[in-house]
Amino acid sequence: MCPEYDEDHNAAVVLLSILPSLIFTIGPLFISCCCCHHFRNKSLATAPFNGGAVKSFPRAATQAFLQPPAQTIQVQVPKGSGPGTQLQASANGLAFNVVVPDGVAEGQMFQVAVPVTPAQPVQATLVNPSVPQPTTGPMLAGFGGDPAAAGGSTTVGENTLLAQMAGMEIKQQVNVAELVTGCEAKNRYHIHNWDPNNPHVPGPFCMLAREESAGFERICCKQNRHLALYVHEGQGEDAAVIMQIHKSFGLAMLPCCRPSVMIFDGQGNKVGSVDDPWHCCVMDQRVYDVNGNQIYGAAGSVCQVGICCPCLGAVEFDITDPVGNPTQAHISKVFNGCAEMMAKVNNFRVTFPQNASAAQKMALLGCTMLIDFEYFEQKG
User: Fold this and answer.
1) 137 and 205 both lie in a single domain
2) Same domain, residue pair 129 and 189
3) CA distance linking residue 176 with residue 279, whole number of Å
4) What is the pTM of this model?
5) pLDDT in tens, 201-210
6) Which domain holds residue 111?
7) β-sheet bridge partners, residue 326
8) Are residues 185 and 270 in the same domain?
9) For residue range 49-91, what is the model confidence (pLDDT) as tens digits?
10) Which residue, of 27, 84, 179, 274, has the greatest Cβ tally within 10 A?
11) Domain co-membership, 199 together with 333
């Protein structure tokens, strides 16, 4: 037999033996890359990432939810204040401005309606009219005063409950159908008012966030999917939508094709955006305002106990100013017990920076949602 024939025959046998392995190894990888490329391009060609407009939801004419009847606090007028004076007060995690009504003198008490009733009267402080004051929430008139005296604001989200919050707790809800079938379902989150000064006291359920996304992409691409989250000011989908969070398709574990988030209010006005540039061993978010200027950063190390064993500790993200200085605010991913172990649902607590505006709090909520989907929404 010809030696050349033996060599060619042996080479063909070797090639045929490894060909199935190459097909089953490279084939799925090639298909995955094609699918990711398709979904990435589709996401970037969809509003708002293509520059198009997003949905606009009508704002409720009245916000009774902000001022429930029979839930009142007493505010004491400080020295040097009188009728018409603007005061700043806080109670149980809510920060707000009030106006002293007519007929109330210094040292006297007047009532203000807020979502949470504290056990003790609130000590208010006088706002210096000569110094510009950052707005931390809606201005409320005292009972017996003229509500119009409180004034109005054109700032985005100024008349929402979110503007009054000092912190919030975000609880992802268990989906029984997803747990039984293993197919990724649309996420839903209950958002509670949470007081960072009383971290162990549960706050009221006040907002609902629901996901809208394509079923095929959600099942195949899991946490990388393109999606929108609509936040309702209330406990049901019939409540007013106060903000929208739009996430692009992205691959969180790669230095390229990173996901990003754009945040809008309920009427479709852009509030800000969040991106996550790749850094080795650091989970690093950048938060921008409507003009593209960085307002906050949120960074956490991957070398935390909560990353490896969630039941032993939280995962902390420090919120910093644009140049990296601490703000005494943070985002914490806290252990959710058996629900997290069995159903992979996550809980977050957000402490807002002092004097953060409603628009800035919306942007930080969008940042928290991006953190969840990038690093903790791992379900297979």
Assistant:
1) no
2) no
3) 36
4) 0.72
5) 888 999 999 9
6) 67-152
7) 320
8) yes
9) 999 999 999 875 444 343 443 356 778 888 888 888 888 777 6
10) 274
11) yes
